[in-house]
Design brief:
CATH superfamily of one domain: Alpha/Beta hydrolase fold, catalytic domain
GO molecular function, one term: hydrolase activity
Keywords: Hydrolase, Signal
CATH topology of one domain: Rossmann fold
Strand content: 15-25%
Helix content: 40-55%
Shape: globular
Protein name: Alpha/beta hydrolase
Order of helices and strands: HEHEHEHEHEEHHEHEHEHH
Number of helices: 11
CATH class of one domain: Alpha Beta
Pfam families: Abhydrolase_6
Number of strands: 9
Organism: Saccharothrix yanglingensis
Distance between the termini: 69 Å
Length: 269
């Protein structure tokens, strides 16, 4: 009796093992049969000077509601080449396609991205610099009249002889975020991150927009980068679509996030 029971138990164990294996094969086949195309790109957002990653929060919230993964990169704001290197390192850790979005000086950084692989599908410039080779952000800001940034800056000398630049808190709203509620603009002024002066004078390398499609959002009442300069850069880059937001300040991603998101989604399709 004991032997018979042992044999029955052994057969049941073997049968269960077969069933588990078949079930596992079915699961594997089901996974293999799932379509791999149509993956939504990760939206990588690069802030500019006098801001931080939190400046993208309204945009990120809306992208997440649409099912996108969004990553706000901590831009060092030390120099175009070194900041682009930091961005490249961050991109290396992201799987699948990417849409790069740059605001202000962040546009110069995405312009210098070295990731020429198919990973980067699109570039989106939001009130941003899109320099050609040899151009600097400061040079482009002064190309056309209208920028009032220089008179609002508060320099802080650094030990290496260079200078960090902040916008004076008392002038921050009128200069950077005129269409943002006063309380919110005050918080932005208090949490702004400085840019090293040399970064604004550093010449750009070969621009990514010559080989990667670009989309541009222009801020109509921008006091950092004149509207005419933004339009010039968009035309030169061969922008697939250019949207002008009338009355928008330089902080257009904070004040008009819905419009910014719509353009990003168009670039991601």
């Amino acid at each position: 009796m004991h032997t018979l029971t042992h044999r029955v138990t052994a057969r049941i164990t073997a049968l269960l093992a077969v069933l588990v294996a078949v079930a596992g094969l079915g699961t594997a086949n089901a996974v293999a049969d799932r379509p791999t195309g149509g993956q939504k790109p990760t939206i990588v957002l690069v802030h500019g000077a006098f801001a931080d990653g939190a400046s993208w929060n309204p945009v990120i919230e809306r992208l997440q509601r649409r099912g996108f993964t969004a990553v706000a990169v901590a831009n060092p704001l030390r120099g175009v080449r070194s900041d682009a290197d930091a961005l490249d390192a961050r991109l290396a850790g992201i799987d699948g396609p990417v849409v790069l979005v740059g605001h202000s000086y962040g546009g110069a950084v995405i312009t210098n991205v070295k990731a020429r692989s198919p990973k980067v599908k699109a570039l989106v410039y939001v009130a941003a610099f899109a320099p050609a080779e040899g151009e600097a952000a400061g040079q482009l800001a002064a190309k056309y009249p209208g920028s009032t940034l220089g008179g609002t800056l508060a320099p802080v000398p650094l030990p290496d002889g260079s200078t960090d630049l902040y916008i004076k808190p008392s002038l921050f709203r009128q200069q950077f975020a005129a269409d943002v509620p006063a309380r919110q603009a005050a918080l932005m002024a208090s949490t702004q991150r400085p840019i090293r002066d040399a970064a604004l004078d550093e010449a750009s390398g070969t621009p990514a927009w010559t080989s990667i499609p670009s989309w541009f959002l222009l801020a109509g009442a921008d006091r950092n980068i004149p509207l005419q300069a933004q339009g010039f850069m968009a035309d030169r880059a061969g922008s697939r679509a250019t949207v002008t937001v009338e009355g928008a300040s330089h902080a257009v991603a904070v004040s008009r996030p819905d419009t910014v998101v719509k353009l990003i989604v168009r670039a991601a399709d």
